[in-house]
Amino acid sequence: MTQFDFGTRSVARFGEGVRHELSSLLPIDGSAEILVIASESALKREAVASLVNDLARHGSVRCFSKVMPNPRTDHIDECFDANFARNITHVVGIGGGSPLDQAKATAMALSCNSKVSDLLSRGGLLPERTNKLILLPTTSGTGAELSYGAILTDSSSGEKLGLRGAAQAADIALVDPELTYTVPRYTSMETGFDVLTHALETYISSAATPYTQDLSRAALQRVFRWLPVLYGNLGDIEARREMAYASMLMGHCLALSTTCLPHRLQYPIGAATDTAHAAGLAAIYPTWLAQLVPQATEKLANCAVWIGVSSASDSTEQQARAFIDAVINLMDRIEFRPSLRDLGVTTEMIARFPDEVTGKLHTDPSYTDRSDLAAMYRTAFG
Fold first, then answer.
1. Of 114, 32, 123, 43, which is closest to residue 80 (Cα–Cα)?
2. Does pTM top 0.90 for this prediction?
3. Cα–Cα dist 295/359, whole Å
4. Cys bridge to 222: 35, 85, 246, 365, which one at CB 3.0-4.6 A?
5. CB–CB of 139/277 below 8 Å?
6. Closest to 207 (Cα-Cα) out of 280, 159, 263, 126
7. Distance of CA 338 to CAs 322, 323, 343, 354, Å?
8. Where does residue 175 rank: exposed (0-12), middle (13-18), buried (19+ CB within 10 A)?
9. First to last CA, the chain
10. Predicted confidence (pLDDT) per residue in 230-264, tens digit
11. CA–CA separation, 164 and 150 (whole Å)
């Protein structure tokens, strides 16, 4: 067995009500300079507004609410300009993946006294932060509260870029399922599918370890059991809890393993169409899964066994294909089957997307060379 890591930089607290621990993580002498990053709609929610009000007992609090899906570098730079002179001691991010990624990037920019656009152009390892970063997710999907990356959209070029590395990690993540109770059906299904992709891809990836594989298995089993339950009853508290837990596990897994081709292929889609990350993944997934069978038969077969869709008499390939069918059937059951055309992708985009794909490609066992990318885009487009 090879050497591998267990722990990450972040301390995570999970469970109903852990959000109320937020104020206890700040100094009691009122000396903190606190920056809260959350959308306007999130700040209007009673549970979030109460948290922000409590922070005022610990120091000066300022909120930045210019937050969009696919966070923009110009918004982060605007926040930097407004706050760099305040000597921010604590950055608190509250929301889904976009505000949490924005909070991560903002905390790093403020710590470095450098605009995020400059950080992105530097390359190399990021320095250790001097401020504290606390993240509270309000959706169950991205795992951004524990992952090491901040995925951003360059406001000038439209390109999706990332600040990556352990220095990006939150100091503390408070994962409270109660914050997800009011998430509407479509968003719950969209983010739930994102958990599935993280679980499968971090398992398939050549960067997987025995530890991350165990996490992936636990998350996959929860998604297949509980996401359909949540689709049928948004008020099912156990389903909310289990999906929040699975999402948190995958944030941990993302920090220690890596995703595969679908995530690399989605970034140009998201940048060109300004559509949700999970929607682009769903449009690519059937094509990627079909391509994956010859190179990852045994792992896909294991997944089929884990979720109970194969029998002992099936061949390994039959088990693998049974799992792929189960993924597609799940997408149908939760009514989450967007196509590339649904997302606004055009033939012109399909032609240029392969050249815009960046990131680690060889960790995907189905990848041979960049011609694979063009073929996948064409096949998914139809």
1. 114
2. yes
3. 20
4. 246
5. no
6. 263
7. 22, 20, 7, 20
8. buried
9. 42
10. 999 999 999 999 999 999 999 999 999 999 999 99
11. 6
